[in-house]
Amino acid sequence: MTLGQLAVRHGCELRGDPDCVVDRVATLAGAGPGSISFFANPAYRSRLGETRATAVILRAADAGDCPVAALLTKDPYVVYARIAVDLHPAPPLQPGVHAAAILGAAVAVPDTCQIGPGAVLGDGVSLGERVSIGANAVIGEGVAIGADSRIAPGAVIYGGVRLGSRCLIHSGAVIGADGFGFARDADGSQIKVPQIGGVVIGDDVEIGACTTIDRGAIGDTVIEDGVKLDNQIQVGHNTRIGAHTVIAGQTGVSGSTTIGARCTIGGAAAIAGHLHIADDVVIGGGTSVPGSISSRGVYAGGGTPADTLQRWRRNMVRFGQLDEMARRLRALEKRIKQDPE
To answer: What was the pLDDT predicted at 32?
Structure first.
């Protein structure tokens, strides 16, 4: 695409030749002719001055340091993301059902869908237009998948799950497995509680590789529109994750917890069950969340229970002062014993 086309499409001011063509995105350091990069972090200013990209997406205040053509915008990273989609679209579908795919009874597959080799679709599966099912993916009975969704090779979606439109499910993800529900009998044995709920996933949801989302025990586990889940996340039964929330890898969310909209949760966070987390909450990586969070804000606690970021930082500083404080306390106690008056 030409820089002029990109500027018009994404509402940028162009400083440079509108007829210049770019065909890929690249980092500032790795860019060459024909590529476009972005600059949003001052730490990379030296790389900006040395870049060999054809153009760079950046703020107007940084344009003076850019030696090449520039697309000026208030949010370079967002515009970069959109241009990256323009220049690197998903591979086009090749509609059709592979001869090695297995389809159950009453499966609705529009002519625009692509079903890969070894894929298994159970009875009553319903697919929207332009759905792609990768090789060896397994789609259980009665699953409904909305238009333009893509299921990567090897993903497993159990029966009774509903996916919205434009979802992306990566390889190894398992959606709709039984939740961890057991009742302890008097002799200490565990009685399995049937998990008869489902999983409902909204539109524009992305679920990373080897992430697992358990079906509800009675009601449904719900993943709302626009949620993005990284790789290797565990979502327990009857959890609800609010719209446009983002969760990084290796996080565990226990059952029956509600996470609000537009939250950001760092990697390896541990969230206990039956909690409520408000909208617009940020939880730092490695944070343990043993109780509900009722107010928006930033919370952190690597290795310690979650607290407000400001108080957690103060406590971490004091933690480093504990040894000195202990020595001063012992000295004070000694003086008091020697001179009680």
So the answer is: 96
Inter-residue contact 72 to 63 (CB < 8 Å): yes
Give the predicted TM-score (pTM) of the model.
Answer: 0.88
- Roughly how many angstroms between the first and final C-alpha of the chain, as a whole number? 85
CATH architecture for residues 3-87: 3-Layer(aba) Sandwich (3.40)
The radius of gyration computed from the CA coordinates of the chain, to the nearest angstrom, equals: 26
Select which of 10, 98, 170, 237 is catalytic: 237
Q: For residue 336, what are the contacts with CB-CB under 8 A and spacing of at least 6?
A: none
d(CA 108, CA 124): 7
Boundaries of every domain in the chain:
3-87
Cβ neighbours for 74, distance < 8 A, ≥ 6 positions apart: 59
pLDDT digits (tens, 9 = 90+) for 47-64: 999 999 999 999 999 999
**How high is the pLDDT of residue 94?**
95
In terms of Cα–Cα distance, which of 248, 213, 244, 255 is closest to 231?
A: 248
Nearest to 36 by CA among 72, 61, 75, 70: 70
Residue with tokens 């790389």: 47
Q: Which ranges constitute the DSSP H helices of 137-183?
A: none
Residue 27 CA to residue 32 CA, distance in Å, equals 9
Q: CA 241: distance to chain centroid?
A: 11
* Catalytic residue list contains 237: yes
